[in-house]
Design a protein that fits this description.
This protein has a single domain, classed as Alpha-Beta Barrel (TIM Barrel), CATH 3.20.20. It contains ten helices and ten strands. Helix 6 links the parallel strand 8 and strand 9. Helix 1 runs parallel beside helix 2, helix 2 packs parallel to helix 3 and helix 3 packs across helix 4. It is globular. Bound molecules: NADP nicotinamide-adenine-dinucleotide phosphate. NADP nicotinamide-adenine-dinucleotide phosphate binds next to helix 9. It comes from Polyrhizophydium stewartii.
């Protein structure tokens, strides 16, 4: 079944599930991305930090699916923030990917003292058509409010860690009000909660896996969700979440899972 898309404030559309490739080694990344595209994924989430942009580009070419049908995101790493550094880092990413534009370019995190200059660089890349949409990652509400003082183009997305165990109501409310799409990273809690008996009960009720319930939760909330797997059977199953829906009772139960669990880093609290 085709993955639905969401419309960004840039006017472009983004598939609601993307394959994450953080911690996919170069050897793993090529087959994983080829399998994903074969399985119907049309959205890949990489970053300069992940050191697999070249393999993502290679897999897209190998897949035989036209480049313009695949939504490709990459990100500016923190040590490359600043205006001229960001422009140079973007060129390096584009070269590694072997592409002439990316669909989405993100500031990986809100680096203190650099993020405004970095954003100016992203705006230039957007105006030149090299980054069709631009956005941020790991921005808290105070970072997003501050952006209103320096951004002439608003961010299309804010990519953050978000799961039933870390619901970030303040960021969600702000982004929804401003038309900024939330991308949910580490949607599977990096595996930490896949055996939670409360989650198992919901999964059993629907005849689905706990991973599928977590992914479906993000879809129900209107997020774009980015599960990572380098295993063919898993990445196929992770996309198979459009033949069931969580009902009001499931969603009310999941709302109670909040425990402030951060499985990655948390730059949303940086100054
Ligand atoms: N912007 C940021 O700062 C940031 C930070 C973190 C992540 N991200 C993005 O979000 C993506 C996903 O996040 P993540 O990689 O941290 O974690 P995740 O997607 O929550 O979990 C990935 C882990 O779960 C395993 N897994 C995948 N599908 C499974 C399934 N169906 N059943 C059981 N285990 C399964 C994977 O192993 P196998 O691969 O062996 O299947 C891997 O160990 C990243 O790849 C990246 O694109 C962004």
């Amino acid at each position: 079944m085709a993955v639905p898309t969401v419309r960004l404030n840039s006017g472009h559309s983004m598939p609601q599930i993307g394959l994450g490739v953080w911690q996919a080694s170069p050897d793993e990344a090529v087959p994983a991305v080829v399998w994903a595209i074969e399985a119907g994924y049309r959205h890949i989430d990489t970053a300069a930090l992940y050191a697999n942009e070249a393999q993502v580009g290679e897999a897209i070419r190998r897949s035989g699916v036209p480049r313009d049908q695949i939504f490709v995101t990459t990100k500016l790493w923190n040590s490359d923030q600043g205006y001229s550094q960001a422009l140079a880092a973007f060129d390096a990413s584009l070269k590694a990917l072997g592409l002439d534009y990316v669909d989405l370019y993100l500031l990986h995190a809100p680096v203190v003292g650099k993020r405004a200059d970095s954003w100016r660089a992203l705006e230039k890349l957007h105006r030149e058509g090299k980054a069709r949409s631009i956005g941020v990652s790991n921005f808290g509400v105070h970072h997003l409010k501050e952006m209103e003082s320096y951004a002439t183009i608003p961010p299309a997305v804010n990519q953050i860690e978000i799961t039933p165990y870390l619901q970030r109501h303040d960021i969600v409310e702000y982004c929804n009000a401003k038309g900024i799409v939330i991308q949910a990273y580490s949607p599977l809690t990096q595996g930490n909660k896949l055996s939670d008996p409360r989650l198992v009960a919901i999964a059993d009720k629907h005849g689905k896996t706990t991973a599928q319930v977590l992914i479906r939760w993000g879809i129900e909330k209107g997020f774009v969700t980015l599960p990572k797997s380098v295993k063919r059977d898993r990445l196929i199953a992770n996309k198979d979440v459009f033949d069931f829906a969580l009902d009001a009772r499931d969603l009310a139960l999941l709302d109670q899972f909040e425990e402030g669990l951060v499985v990655g880093w948390d730059p949303t609290v940086w100054d």
